[in-house]
Amino acid sequence: MIRTRILTPLISALTSITGAAALVLAGLPATAAPPPSPDERAAAAFEKLPLTPTPPLGWNSWNKFGCDIDEELIRETADAMVASGMADAGYEYVNIDDCWMAPARDADGNLQADPERFPSGIKALADYVHAKGLKLGIYSSAGTATCQHLPASLDHEEADAAKFAEWEVDLLKYDNCNNEGRPALERYTAMAEALLATGRPIVFSICEWGESDPWASFGPELGHLWRTTGDISDNWGSVTSILDQQVGLEAYSGPNAWNDPDMLEVGNGGMTTDEYRSHMALWSVMNAPLIAGNDLRDMDAETLAVLTDPEVLAVNQDWAGVQGHRVADDGDVEVWAKPLADGGVAAVLLNRSDQAGTVSTTAEVLGLDDAPAYAVRDLWDGGVTETRGEIRGSVPAHGSLYVEVTPARPGHADPLVSAEVTTKTGSGTGYLDPGASFEASVTATNHGTTPATELSWDLAVPDGWVAQEVDVPDADALPGGRSLTATWRVTATADAATGLHDLTGSLGYTTELGTVTAVAGHGNVRVAVPPSGTGWLSDLDPVSAHVGWGELGLDESVDGNPITVGGVVYDKGLAAHAASEVVYYLGGQCTRFTADVGVDDEVGDLGSVTFTVLGDGEVLAESGELTGADGAAPLDVDTTGVTELVLRAGDADGSINYDHSTWAAPELTCA
Ligand code: GLA
User: Fold this and answer.
1) Domain count, the chain
2) Ligand 1 site, CB within 6 A
3) Which domain, by its residues, includes 659?
4) Which end of the chain has the smaller Cβ count within 10 Å, N or C?
5) Position in ligand 1 atom list of the atom nearest CA 230
6) pLDDT digits (tens, 9 = 90+) for 193-215
7) Are the C-beta atoms of 67 and 116 separated by less than 8 Å?
8) CA 507 to ligand 1 center in whole angstroms
9) Do 481 and 629 belong to one domain?
């Protein structure tokens, strides 16, 4: 069935590369057998083995260990996969990534394991792993060398596949480095055919980084999974950038053919637990292969819990016709939903913002039929509540709710109640002077059909801050479908530090089913002090700084050099690689901002950027497009009355490569 859907694009892709392939083939070494013509190949019945009816679960050495691997690590990882309970949870593949092979092929031209780090050889490792009830994966590249410059399989497909089969390997991750510019279709077809010809069931994991849209061409035909992007790394920006590249790919995946947004980073230490939970929830809902990338021999209970949550894994393994995909996007809040075989929908409600906030969606947006009520099951803790349709909750920065929503009988469970905190500062700007007062409100909403009673309200403020009740409802019930708001006047301490301060509001209540519980919501206020006198922006703390690559450079370039634009070296400046936005609080106290803007000389004539200055959302100055070949452009901006100054460096030519955007000599004149 998949074959007929895929073969047409495969044939047309083959036809379109005929010319290029002919050129490349002309340069093949004389020993290589002439590959079949495109027509012969399309006519050949390539019947991929159905080895991954659900997304594969396992582990891979690369994310944590890179090239620092040996057979002991692989054996200990197999041991740990069993001992930790991961194997019981469904994890199966133990995959050796790059760097297992010796620097040269053996005398017969075969790949061989590195004699020092894998002295017992791959077959012995496979035996060890199989004896534990697990499977062994291995790695090569569809190129002349791996990404780490070791022997790889281009033009050795048959011999190498035969070796992998002889060693009783169960999965091949096939990378894309050093591919000589030869068409991916041809290179990946050769290995798929070679693996099939061995007669051993070997999962084919295509690692072509999504460069030729394999999902829409050869991926589903040849592979069991295919990478959709470049490499993941252990930070939140990497997770969201990969996530953005999955939009629209859901149509292409299915049993034995999975989109692979790359391996997990859960437990590697670069993200918060909330971020790792969101990463795991998103990969789960997208039917991604779940290939752990941490040290299984040494993981804390939290990491293990994230990796092995039974319901989170069950959603990933459930196939009801379409991969989870984005159904709502309002900037900071995204909803990713996946229909389940039992008629429910799994949904990740993601807070992409850097602050705690409210996420919400409805049963309708999730694609569920109209019903008087729905059960909302928290996939992490198994708790079930009931809603008339809205699903709403407060989550930390980069946090998420991961729920399954199913039509249900009204009143079958406790109502879903949400709480959120909003703040109103005197200036109305969201910034607060140290020692100043502001209003904080907690709004609680009962989304269910039965009331919450015995209400008790609370607002937790930072240490030393004072909260005085202004208007706290004395109602003794919050009926289904209704909201109540309690308000406090909060005073910050005179020495409150600049920056964001969290406020947590909560409502305690009792349900008709007798449950005594509470719901909490988060909000925050930003304490800020306006600058005074005349000085350099690079000496001030920004309110926030987002840069497109690397880190915000203070008095040094993106690459850490002295700031230099148009041959002029500047002592002071901000290096904010496009696309970037750096925000400063002026508090209405500053009258003038000047800077020389341009692309740093360190990229030569490359790079292309537009610099924009905004005051309270209005454009105050724009540089026009500047490239590395241009000198600096002076900006002189009247900032009278501006509360918030935003410096934006935007890409001007469709690529942020080399956009080393520099605000040189950024001077601010304040009262
Ligand atoms: C590429 C792949 C990674 C990893 C490394 C190994 O970058 O995309 O997943 O396999 O090579 O060198």
Assistant:
1) 4
2) 62, 97-98, 146-148, 175, 207, 231
3) 534-670
4) N
5) 8
6) 999 999 999 999 999 999 999 99
7) no
8) 49
9) no
